[in-house]
Amino acid sequence: MPNGTELGVGVERVGSLEALMEQTNTLSIHAPLTPETRGMISRAMLERMPKGGVVVNTARGPIVDVDALAELLKRGHLAGVGLDVLPIEPPVEPIPELLRAYRAREAWCEGRLIITPHSAFFTPEAWADTRLKAAETMRAALVGPRPQNVITPEIIFANNFLMGLCPRENGLSLCGVRQCADTGRRHRPVNGHPSRPSAEENPHALKGRKRTDHPHRPRNADGQCDATLLGPGMPVA
Q1: Tell me: the pLDDT tens digits for 113-123?
Q2: Taking Cα atoms as reference points, which of 69, 38, 64 lies closest to residue 53?
Q3: For this structure, is 216 an active site residue?
Q4: Is 30 a catalytic residue?
Q5: What is the pLDDT of residues 186-227, one digit of tens each?
Q6: Catalytic residue among 60, 168, 187, 217
Q7: Which of 7, 144, 174, 202 has its CA 20 to 30 A from that of 53?
Q8: To 10 degrees, the CA torsion angle through 213, 219, 222, 224?
Q9: Is 204 a catalytic residue?
Q10: How far is CA 211 from CA 153, 164, 190, 195, 214, in A?
Q11: Catalytic choice (43, 118, 178, 196)
């Protein structure tokens, strides 16, 4: 998260996971499962939490040591645990102690432990929001002005740059999506796809030229496209 973002959402940034664990009373985990996050919330990390803390995991099961959760909940170090994910789904024998005690309704976890089958999001409101966000994302990709929720926008830019679509304005969006900054002319959709301008309306469209002959690519003294003149981070064909 870029520096300063925490100020906009009213939270405090800490320098390490250890520092976070030592001052949090409610730990809610929202992280992807990667080699770095697997086992990230270990027994040692959980023991750093103040007594009476609550742990909620709606991310991925292997991020948290569930056996440590069972032990710390049973002895009273943790006040409550909520899990929507488990290390193995669906669970198979031998199942984790935490799940066994939950199924058996043992006294030490009654009212202090909630386990749901990776479906805690499933509410009428969430279902409607999921469909709305999906429709909005598809519309933005097809109609513009630019795609939303793009995980790796630099890859999209690189692919379109190599295809010969000219950059628009600061180069972060493409003229093929809506409008070309060089001509100011809007491109009509071709075959129902607004991001592909016609050769007649777009003077930069590939029309018999090689990809290396794109008008926006830098050229050397001989007029040839010179990839070495591209700026930092620009794709090279």
Answers
A1: 999 998 878 88
A2: 69
A3: no
A4: no
A5: 444 444 444 444 455 444 444 444 444 444 444 555 655 444
A6: 60
A7: 7
A8: -20
A9: no
A10: 21, 6, 20, 18, 6
A11: 118
pTM higher than the cut 0.85: no
Domain boundaries, the chain: 12-115, 141-229
Order the strands of the 78-83 sheet from edge to edge: 26-29, 53-57, 78-83, 113-115
Q: How do residues 165-189 score in pLDDT, each as one tens digit?
A: 544 433 333 333 444 444 444 444 4
Tell me which of 22, 89, 110, 136 is the catalytic residue: 89
Return the amino acid letter for 225.
Answer: C
Please give the CATH topology (third level) of the domain spanning 12-115.
Rossmann fold (3.40.50)
Average pLDDT, the chain: 76
